[in-house]
Amino acid sequence: MQKIAQFEKVSFQQFEKDFVKNFPDIKDVKAVYDSIKLPKRATTGSAGYDFYAPVELVIKKGESILIPTGIRSKIEDGWVLKIYPRSGLGFKHRVQLDNTVGIIDADYYNSSNEGHIMIKLSCDAHDDEHLVTVNAGDGFAQGIFLQFGITFDDETDGIRDGGFGSTTK
Predict the structure, then answer these.
(1) What global pTM score does this model have?
(2) Which of 35, 89, 100, 122 has the fewest CB atoms inside 10 Å of its own CB, making it the most exposed?
(3) Mind listing the pLDDT tens digit for each residue in 12-28?
């Protein structure tokens, strides 16, 4: 296997800024930050790197939750990290990413938000009373590194500074 990336934590300051917007009731943000686990593959044959919940996540049917992971990834040029929900969450509970597939480009690492990977999940269950709970430290998403190509006449010279839609502004 070719080694092309490295997962790291974002700074505590960046994590705290993003986390308190989404989880204002949790007071000990430093303890949450200290407990963050870097993504890992479960087996030698796994393609996906599991992302772990920084706190307990509760998603009701028809609702979404934005999860600041505390993680960033330094990726070599020519590669991308694609984020998907864990298979079991999708199969059992119809949990999905709000943007279908998350795309983490190599240059996102240098963004002003330190390349903080944020994952937004929603539950589209068919039953009325459905509630999905993911315990802190459990896997909830997976990331897969894929190589990509560009066209022969590509002359892109833009510089990224941000996530969600920042490259088309």
Answers:
(1) 0.90
(2) 100
(3) 999 999 999 999 999 99
* Residue ranges in the chain assigned as alpha helix (H): 12-22, 29-35, 87-93
Secondary structure (DSSP) of 18-46: HHHHH-TT---HHHHHHHPPPPB-SSTT-
What is the rounded distance in angstroms from the CA atom of residue 128 to the CA atom of residue 111? 40
pLDDT for 168: 47
Q: Which amino acid would we find at residue 119?
A: I
Answer whether 67's CB lies under 8 Å from 26's CB: no
- DSSP strand pairing (57-60 vs 102-105): unpaired
The strands making up 102-105's β-sheet, listed across from edge to edge, are 49-52, 139-147, 79-85, 102-105
Q: How do residues 33-59 score in pLDDT, each as one tens digit?
A: 999 999 999 999 999 999 999 999 999
